[in-house]
Amino acid sequence: MSPVREVNRVYVCNCFGVTEAQVKKHAADGACTPRQIASACKAGTDCGSCVRRIQALLGRGACPRRDLVDQGEPAVALAPEAELPEAA
Protein backbone atom coordinates (compact mmCIF):
# COMPACT_ATOMS: atom_id res chain seq x y z
CA MET A 1 0.00 0.00 0.00
CA SER A 2 1.06 3.57 -0.59
CA PRO A 3 1.60 6.05 2.26
CA VAL A 4 -1.43 7.94 3.54
CA ARG A 5 -2.09 10.97 1.38
CA GLU A 6 -4.17 14.04 2.07
CA VAL A 7 -7.47 13.15 0.40
CA ASN A 8 -9.56 16.25 1.11
CA ARG A 9 -7.45 18.95 -0.49
CA VAL A 10 -9.54 21.98 -1.24
CA TYR A 11 -7.59 24.21 -3.58
CA VAL A 12 -8.04 27.93 -3.15
CA CYS A 13 -5.47 28.96 -5.76
CA ASN A 14 -5.24 26.63 -8.72
CA CYS A 15 -2.47 28.67 -10.35
CA PHE A 16 -0.02 27.91 -7.53
CA GLY A 17 -1.67 24.84 -5.97
CA VAL A 18 -2.38 26.56 -2.64
CA THR A 19 -4.88 24.75 -0.44
CA GLU A 20 -7.42 26.08 2.04
CA ALA A 21 -5.37 24.51 4.84
CA GLN A 22 -2.27 26.43 3.72
CA VAL A 23 -4.16 29.74 3.65
CA LYS A 24 -5.54 29.04 7.15
CA LYS A 25 -2.04 28.24 8.41
CA HIS A 26 -0.64 31.50 7.02
CA ALA A 27 -3.57 33.34 8.64
CA ALA A 28 -2.83 31.63 11.95
CA ASP A 29 0.80 32.71 11.56
CA GLY A 30 -0.31 36.35 11.28
CA ALA A 31 -1.29 37.05 7.66
CA CYS A 32 -4.38 39.27 7.90
CA THR A 33 -4.96 40.36 4.30
CA PRO A 34 -4.98 38.75 0.86
CA ARG A 35 -1.81 40.71 0.10
CA GLN A 36 -0.06 39.17 3.12
CA ILE A 37 -1.26 35.71 2.06
CA ALA A 38 0.15 36.43 -1.41
CA SER A 39 3.50 37.36 0.11
CA ALA A 40 3.54 34.10 2.03
CA CYS A 41 2.57 31.69 -0.77
CA LYS A 42 1.83 33.58 -4.04
CA ALA A 43 -1.90 32.79 -3.88
CA GLY A 44 -3.85 35.50 -5.69
CA THR A 45 -0.91 36.88 -7.67
CA ASP A 46 -1.58 35.28 -11.06
CA CYS A 47 -5.14 35.30 -12.39
CA GLY A 48 -6.67 36.72 -9.19
CA SER A 49 -9.77 34.53 -9.24
CA CYS A 50 -9.01 33.23 -5.73
CA VAL A 51 -8.73 36.60 -3.98
CA ARG A 52 -12.39 36.67 -2.91
CA ARG A 53 -12.11 33.14 -1.55
CA ILE A 54 -9.01 34.17 0.41
CA GLN A 55 -10.92 37.17 1.77
CA ALA A 56 -13.73 34.85 2.84
CA LEU A 57 -11.29 32.50 4.58
CA LEU A 58 -9.71 35.40 6.43
CA GLY A 59 -13.12 36.74 7.44
CA ARG A 60 -13.90 39.36 10.03
CA GLY A 61 -12.17 38.78 13.32
CA ALA A 62 -9.45 36.58 11.82
CA CYS A 63 -6.89 39.31 12.37
CA PRO A 64 -6.32 40.73 15.84
CA ARG A 65 -5.10 44.02 14.36
CA ARG A 66 -8.37 44.38 12.43
CA ASP A 67 -10.26 43.93 15.71
CA LEU A 68 -8.38 46.90 17.17
CA VAL A 69 -9.33 49.07 14.19
CA ASP A 70 -12.97 48.03 14.61
CA GLN A 71 -12.71 49.18 18.25
CA GLY A 72 -11.62 52.65 17.12
CA GLU A 73 -7.86 52.38 17.60
CA PRO A 74 -5.91 54.44 15.04
CA ALA A 75 -4.28 52.38 12.30
CA VAL A 76 -0.94 54.08 12.90
CA ALA A 77 -0.81 52.67 16.41
CA LEU A 78 -1.06 49.21 14.90
CA ALA A 79 2.01 49.53 12.70
CA PRO A 80 5.24 48.07 14.01
CA GLU A 81 7.67 50.55 15.44
CA ALA A 82 9.57 52.12 12.59
CA GLU A 83 13.21 52.99 12.90
CA LEU A 84 13.52 56.56 11.78
CA PRO A 85 16.86 58.12 10.87
CA GLU A 86 18.10 60.64 13.37
CA ALA A 87 17.74 64.28 12.33
CA ALA A 88 20.99 65.99 11.47
From TrEMBL:
Gene3D superfamilies: BFD-like [2Fe-2S]-binding domain
Gene Ontology MF term list: 2 iron, 2 sulfur cluster binding; metal ion binding
BFD-like [2Fe-2S]-binding domain mapped to chain residues: 11-59
Keyword Manganese: no
Keywords in alphabetical order: 2Fe-2S, Electron transport, Iron, Iron-sulfur, Metal-binding, Transport
PANTHER family linked to this entry: BACTERIOFERRITIN-ASSOCIATED FERREDOXIN (PTHR37424)
UniProt similarity note: Belongs to the Bfd family.
Protein name: Bacterioferritin-associated ferredoxin
Species name: Streptomyces venezuelae
